[in-house]
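Supplementary Text 2. Reproducibility record for the structural model of the 327-residue chain.

All settings were left at their defaults, and a single model was retained for analysis rather than an ensemble. We include the record here because the model underlies the residue-level annotations in Supplementary Table 4.
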Amino acid sequence: MTSRAGAGAQPVERPTTAWGHRNILDLDDFTPGEITSVLSTADTMREVLRRPVPKVPTLRGRTVVNLFLEPSTRTQSSFDRAAKALSADVLNLSASSTSVAKGESLIDTFRTLEALGADVVVLRHPQSGAPYLAAREVSAGVINGGDGWHAHPSQALVDIYTVQQHLGDVKGRRVVIVGDILHSRVARSNVWGFTALGATVVLCGPPTLLPIEVARAYEGRDVCVEEELDRAVEEADVVMALRLQRERQEQGLLTSVREYVRGYQVNDERLRRAKPEALLLHPGPVNQGIEVSAEASRGQRSLIEEQVRNGVAVRMALLYLLLRGEG
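Retained model, structure tokens:
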């Protein structure tokens, strides 16, 4: 007789799509086919998570280290659950639990983790570029869990996957990202990901948080800048609000939170300017009543909670794709 645990532990089939990444640092070097491979693999992983026993032995004997040197709830817990669902051994570390607090360099920390058997390190770091430095110096795989203002590739893949689940092909869709574009690693990675699949991305925010020259950084991609949110959301398929950090007002980049809400809060009235089936996203955490109105965040268009749920399947897919060809 097959036990319930045995029935729930069927292996994951290998996707046939070619995969050329040893690290996942951003989406600017991903081909459309590679992004599609992540999304299709996430479909398989979501099916695993729906089983009576949501676990497979695919990465048994592998070690995944979550090294988060700045606070995180969603990303860290999502990678933790993803690795455990694939039967990997998991080690969760923060700045206070490593020798980084004593002045140890990032590279020395990585080499220590590698010597302890780490196959993949998921790194969240306050400094832009830190995962790239680590990837050059060690042989363990590196996944960028968010670095400074630069990139957050796994979150962008979660966002794209969530949109795809509801709208199908994102090619030709109008995706509006509104808020603090200047300091947003989520916005940057989403631009690379959505435009690679043929979407148009509209960046919108206050002039102090939306440098006009930002579009030049994406030369060759379908990206435009719009300072007025009411115009930006016209005929939008997706509206993504970004978290506003209070320190932006302290830095003099905003006159007041009240003015930001008046000009850039995503609410039901503004969403009515978008397409009837338009989706509302937010990478979290949400400042309730600031970036998104309470009514809109609870409305039928809102996929904010679904983004969190999809995060586990997408991050399972990333871990699997990085490690499937080894050993």
